[in-house]
């Protein structure tokens, strides 16, 4: 506990020293359009996979606005992204021709152009279960919807009522969640596992996700992609904590993820029946990412069972900091940057798969 406290204190001090540095990316870089945009804006919700810096504004242990996070970013400086470089929302925004980077909604220097081309409301450590966001803490999914409501009013002020409505209807929305609910809550404490078996907890998460999606539709969203839960039992931290002496994949976590994913597909079909003018796509990454982890050389990697930061066994967020003894010398060999989050290279491979297999359904 003393180690964690010291690390947290160090992390907060470092974050204070670097306040503002992470926001040095120029608006010109951020608004650089590669092609004519497929959709006018990208809006993202969820956890650390999509968090581009919202947690920088929170008093939480789950921050990443300090090195070595961001060492391979465009500026080689940390921004609050839980990665060595760009994250999926950046890569997708670029592929859609919108802009190079998707900024955090809570960034202090957003321009009107930033707002009308999209932002991320995601927060590292959150989940569909409301208890999950209290652990670190993080921004609950319900609060992310409240932030989106405020965002809508800002867009109305820029584009007017009609323009804002058209923008919201034509934009692409991405949602990711569920991993923290399993790894940080259900399999790490009795708060939920004492009340729910694995199947009923998957249903609980599904109900929460469904409610979130339907409220987003009521607020004007029409093109929504929902990322399924990945093989969370295979990330390095869960191998260490739940994988036994051999550090194999935690099979029970993966089983619950698969239960949730199979039911998510059916739930989305039911929602579409009630909202027939809405496109809902399950971005199912489970099998592809599992294959990447099990057969890394097929995808240009060598190491998939540990992260690049420190020992790669448990370091993530405040434990992956400048005092970490080592950072791997060749990050391109690794699928995971820390013990929980992939590297930019791994994200790029994953985003290419998602874009090729799902986005023609989402943005057509």
Keywords:
alpha/beta, disordered N terminus, 6 strands, four-stranded parallel β-sheet, globular, 364 residues
Brief account:
The protein is α/β, with parallel strands linked by helices and 364 residues long. The chain contains 12 helices and 6 strands.
Give a written overview of the molecule.
It holds the Pfam family Lipase_GDSL. It comes from Rhynchospora pubera. Keywords: Signal. Residues 1-22 form the signal peptide. With 364 residues, the protein is α/β, with parallel strands linked by helices. Helices cover 43% and strands 8% of the residues. It has helices at residues 2-17, 27-30, 88-95, 112-117, 141-170, 179-186, 190-193, 198-218, 236-242, 251-274, 286-294, 344-363; strands at 42-46, 172-176, 223-227, 279-283, 303-307, 334-336. The N and C termini lie far apart (51 Å). The relative contact order is 0.13.
Cα radius of gyration in angstroms = 19 Å
Tell me the total number of β-strands.
6
Query: What is the share of helical residues?
Result: 40-55%
| Number of continuous helical runs | 12
Spatial arrangement of strands, main beta sheet: 1-2-3-4
Question: What is the ordering of alpha helices and beta strands?
Answer: HHEHHHEHHHEHHEHEEH
Main beta sheet strand tally, sense and closure: 4 strands, parallel
What ranges have pLDDT less than 50 throughout 5 or more consecutive residues? 1-34
CA distance, first residue to last residue: 51 Å
């Amino acid at each position: 506990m003393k180690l964690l406290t010291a690390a947290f204190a160090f992390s907060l001090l470092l974050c204070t020293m670097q306040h503002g540095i992470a926001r040095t990316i120029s608006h010109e870089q951020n608004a650089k359009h590669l092609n004519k945009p497929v959709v006018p804006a990208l809006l993202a919700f969820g956890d650390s996979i999509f968090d581009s810096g919202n947690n920088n504004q929170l008093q939480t242990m789950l921050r990443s606005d300090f090195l070595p996070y961001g060492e391979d970013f465009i500026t080689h400086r940390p921004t609050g992204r839980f990665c060595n470089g760009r994250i999926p929302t950046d890569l997708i925004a670029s592929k859609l021709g919108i802009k190079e980077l998707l900024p955090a909604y809570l960034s202090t220097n957003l321009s009107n152009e930033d707002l009308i081309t999209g932002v991320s409301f995601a927060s590292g450590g959150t989940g569909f279960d409301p208890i999950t966001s209290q652990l670190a803490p993080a921004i609950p999914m319900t609060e992310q919807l409240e932030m989106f409501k405020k965002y809508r009013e800002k867009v109305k002020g820029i584009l007017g009522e009609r323009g804002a409505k058209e923008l919201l209807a034509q934009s692409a929305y991405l949602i990711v969640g569920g991993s923290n609910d399993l790894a940080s809550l259900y399999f790490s404490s009795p708060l939920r596992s004492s009340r729910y078996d694995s199947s009923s907890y998957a249903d609980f998460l599904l109900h929460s996700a469904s409610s979130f999606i339907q409220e987003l539709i009521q607020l004007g969203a029409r093109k929504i992609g929902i990322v399924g839960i990945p093989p969370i039992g295979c990330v390095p931290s869960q191998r260490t904590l739940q994988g036994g002496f051999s550090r194999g994949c935690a099979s029970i976590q993966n089983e619950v993820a698969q239960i949730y994913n199979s039911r998510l597909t059916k739930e989305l079909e039911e929602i579409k029946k009630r909202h027939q003018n809405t496109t809902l796509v399950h971005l199912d990454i489970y099998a592809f990412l599992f294959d990447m982890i099990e057969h890394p050389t097929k995808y240009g990697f060598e190491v998939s069972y540990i992260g690049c930061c420190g020992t790669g066994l448990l370091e993530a967020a405040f434990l992956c900091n400048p005092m970490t003894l080592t950072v791997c010398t060749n990050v391109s060999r690794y699928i995971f940057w820390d013990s929980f989050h992939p590297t930019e290279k791994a994200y790029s491979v994953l985003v290419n798969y998602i874009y090729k297999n799902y986005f023609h359904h989402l943005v057509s």
